[in-house]
Amino acid sequence: MPVTSVESDTEALTMTLIADFAVGPDRLWAAFTDPRQLERFWGPPGWPATFDAFDFTVGGHAKYYMTSPQGERAGGAWEFTAIDEPRGFEVIDSFADENGEPLEGMPSMRMVFSFEATPEGSRMTNVSRFDSLEALEQVVAMGAVEGSTLAMNQLDAVLQGLREFAQGKGTRLEVLSDQHVRITRLIDGPRELVWRAHVDPDLMRQWMLGPDGWRMTTHEVDRRVGGGYRIAWAPEPGTEGEPFGFDGEILLLDDPRRMVQTEHMTGTDFPSTVNDLSLYEEDGATLLTLLIEYPDATTRDMVLATGMIDGMEESYRRMERVVMG
């Protein structure tokens, strides 16, 4: 994890985040000044950012919004006040309405991004300066420390490139908090086809099976926001195990980039999870990221102990072999 510290100073009215990376300052500069790269890490997991304006000039503005798993939007705006390529830049950062205009009653802050070389690569220092202690405490209470840490810890995949970051490493699990885990897998194939593999019933039956010896017996999906679904599996003759299935509701669809749905084990009183799937393509390969929100750490650990990750890896291997060809 690249973030090494996040500290608030109530006397100086600042919040300072420091992160270290195994790339040079020029590469960091490129990531923070390209809106398409910013979109991959600026929002924390579950709240990805979309920049719909980015005038990178002194006096220019950037406008963005972050989208929750339920489709809610939270807007933000930057005004660029200083640019010193490739050492850093400064912005006034504001909460914004749907038109990108600063929200009245919400604090603005002056953010300074600095990039410097280190023996191991580079260091990014982000200092946010507030007008009052009340503004600092308000932003911290809204989860800025946790959110900014989770957001910046997504940067490694952006800086290294998908294939260098993930190829050959299989299905990877990261425990982000008591309630959240992130699962990533590089699929050697285009995003459009990976998306189809997740929504086309005929393709799903070919790969979404877990270990060998299982078959999909039910696939009922109302593929729209608010639609319900039910999927079930059963073991083939001679394979041990009991039939099981999941049901839930689709919360968000952004074809072919993102799909969010609840997931509940059919026929049980187990609580539902929220599964947030996103796909990003680079150089003909697709990084699949699944962010799962559990109700608590106990449920998280119980589910992970079932061997879920191993079963997912078997399925993803099958997808590459059968669907990607």
Automatic annotation (TrEMBL):
Output the superkingdom of the source species: Bacteria
What are the residue boundaries of the Activator of Hsp90 ATPase homologue 1/2-like C-terminal domain, all occurrences included?
A: 25-159, 190-323
Q: Which family does it belong to?
A: Belongs to the AHA1 family.
Q: Which Pfam families match?
A: AHSA1
- Report the protein name in the record: SRPBCC family protein
Which SUPFAM superfamilies has this protein been placed in? Bet v1-like
Q: Which InterPro entries match?
A: ASHA1/2-like_C, START-like_dom_sf
